[in-house]
Amino acid sequence: QVQLVESGGGSVQAGGSLTLSCVVYGLPWCMSRMSWYRQAPGKEREIVSGIGSDDTTTYADSVKGRFTISRDDTQSTLYLQMNSLKPEDTAMYYCKSDQCNRWGQGTQVTVSS
User: Fold this and answer.
1) Mean pLDDT computed over every residue of the chain
2) CA atoms 39, 56, 79, 95: torsion sign
3) Beta strands 77-82; 18-25: pairing state
4) What is the C-alpha to C-alpha distance for residues 71 and 22, in angstroms, rounded to an integer?
5) Which helix (DSSP H) or strand (DSSP E) does residue 62 occupy?
């Protein structure tokens, strides 16, 4: 059984920073390909960033230069460092194991102007 548990969300002012974490319980190999998604109220879920088995990373244009995805396989944890946050970053953030097609429950990020 694979379970993904996010944490680290919260409320910050514009320009602030947050670091999201996603712990993967169960099969370690599910960590090999991971992604962060977000969904704002009234909008479709969109991909924010991904990391491949060879540690290659991808970012949505809207977060390039501000967000950094990383992982610690020894801790079975995926991270999303978010800097220079903007009100439009406000959303529920979800981690996903692309390898195992599993989602976390989400963590809320709210950025005030």
Assistant:
1) 97
2) positive
3) antiparallel
4) 9
5) none
